[in-house]
Write a structure and sequence with these properties.
With 467 residues, the protein is an alpha/beta fold. It is built from 21 helices and 15 strands. The strands form 4 sheets. Strands 1, 2, 3, 4, 9 and 15 form a 6-stranded mixed sheet that branches. Strands 12-11-13-10-14 form a 5-stranded mixed sheet. α11 packs parallel to α12, α11 runs parallel beside α21 and α14 crosses α15.
């Protein structure tokens, strides 16, 4: 009997209940259809995964497929083997125009345009999207209705007015709105204004070499955030990023509004149901009188190791397509609120009545362009530069000083720009001297939403103080 070819797959263990179990089941299903392969899935701590992949590559033993958080995309591009060759190869080039691999239909042309563009370079899909999220605003409809707020805010100005209405409620919540102090919220606020973090079109038209954390768009957002906090409308727990504390505040009805990732949708709905209030959901607000720039994409993608033999490479590519076939991509959305990454998976959910029964789940997909070529693509590409996660840490510390210490936004974020620039410069020096292997160039922030904390923490937050 022929020994199966082993495909090593290293994925981020997102810790919430059942996540890795589902992936292991999919691995077993693939093996049943393709007994000539064995899928060896290893779930690893996201904070260490990219560094562990780099270390394995340096030892000459990288996995065939490695998962990378979006903030480490530039480092994945730059990663090298111990011989100095690129560690990863382009998924699109490896597919080489085929429409199926080992009988698994190729789905790359079916990807949502914004998602495909986000993980492409010069039109070449370098890695395979896996987890995709966007930003949404969630509301306690009962509190908003009592405050006379007829609809969820669609602009920053409407959000501030809604906060004032909630604050006027007798026996209302202690604050009106909350969100985590995390880099995603800075990125989203810049995207809706058409702003950038880095030069050369956010690192998309050329390698980014200069950062700007004190741009007009950034300071507009920071000053707005500070004003909501000073007015008593914005709840800041004082922790970074404190996803759990912000979810718990919504569950306890200590706020009427929460802005967070689309992948929190299932948990937010559970919190509302447990507490007995009606929830409503909308897109991240834009600026009044200005075009809505777009929405960032967060999440992960799967990278294909270069230099694999043909049998191993085809098995890895086929497994990537299998994970994103319409059924599996649709089921991933239902289980975890992640955006269905292909048009076919979206249509499958539509045909099965999922969106009719769960209309809020349409929103993230609609923001990223479910059917329309190019809808929202340029802003969705997001920034691409070295030590992205380190720069996000710099932003959040600066914002903490603005909120808690009363630091002047312009001067504090000018300092943040200088600090982030030092990190980028150090990354580029390290890359030039040693290749991308060092821990500083591969650090990863906590992920976008509920998966940043354990199952027990999630359960406590969902159930609130009265659970």
């Amino acid at each position: 009997m022929t020994t199966p070819t082993v495909i090593d797959v290293w994925l981020g263990d997102l810790t919430f209940p059942g996540y890795m179990d589902r992936l292991h089941r999919l691995g077993a299903e693939f093996e049943k259809a393709h007994p000539e392969y064995r899928i060896n899935i290893e779930g690893r701590d996201f904070r260490n995964l990219s560094r562990e992949i780099a270390e394995a590559a340096d030892a000459g033993r990288p996995p065939a497929i490695g998962e990378f958080y979006f903030a480490v995309t530039q480092a994945a591009y730059d990663m090298r083997t111990r011989d100095g060759a690129p560690l990863f190869t382009s998924v699109q080039q490896a597919i080489a125009g085929r429409t199926e691999i080992l009988g698994e239909p190729v789905v790359v042309d079916d990807l949502l345009p914004a998602v495909r563009e986000h993980y492409s370079r010069d039109g070449d899909l370098v890695s395979m999207p896996a987890v995709v999220t966007a930003m949404l605003v969630y509301g306690n409809q009962d509190l908003l209705r009592a405050a006379g707020v007829a609809h969820l805010p669609t602009t920053w100005e409407e959000l501030e007015a809604a906060c004032e209405a909630v604050a006027a409620l007798p026996d209302g919540p202690s604050h009106a709105v909350t969100w985590s102090n995390h880099g995603l919220f800075f990125q989203q606020a810049l995207a809706v204004q058409g702003g950038h973090l880095a030069d050369r079109d956010n690192g998309r038209s050329g390698r980014a070499s200069r950062l700007d954390l004190s741009s007009k768009e950034m300071l507009t957002w920071v000053e707005y955030w500070q004003r909501l906090h000073r007015s008593g409308h914005y709840l800041y727990t004082g922790k970074i990023p404190d996803w759990e504390g912000n979810l718990k505040a919504f569950a306890d009805q200590d706020v009427a509004l929460r802005i967070t990732s689309s992948n929190d949708l299932n948990y937010m709905a559970q919190a509302a149901e447990h507490a007995g209030f009606e929830m409503t959901v909308g897109r991240f607000p834009g600026r009044a009188g200005e075009p809505y720039g777009g929405n960032i994409i967060a999440g992960t993608s799967l990278w294909l190791t270069a230099g694999l033999d043909e049998v191993t490479q085809d098995g890895a590519l086929a497994f990537m397509q299998f994970l994103n076939n319409p059924r599996n991509a649709a089921d991933r959305h239902v289980a975890s609120s992640f955006v269905p990454v292909t048009r076919s998976s979206y249509r499958l959910l539509e045909d099965e009545g999922w969106f009719e029964a769960n209309p809020f789940h349409r929103l993230a997909s609609a923001q990223l362009g479910s059917y329309t070529e190019g809808e929202g693509v340029p802003p969705c590409r997001g920034a691409l530069f070295g030590d992205f996660a380190g720069a996000q840490d710099v932003m959040t510390r600066a914002m903490g000083d603005v909120l808690l210490q009363g630091a002047d936004p312009a001067s504090r974020f000018a300092e943040a720009t200088a600090e982030a620039q030092e990190l980028l410069d150090a990354y580029e020096r390290d890359r030039a001297d040693n290749g991308v292997r060092g821990p500083e160039s591969l650090r990863v922030e906590y992920f976008a939403g509920a998966e940043a904390y354990t199952g027990a923490q999630l359960e406590n937050a969902v159930r609130g103080s009265n659970g």
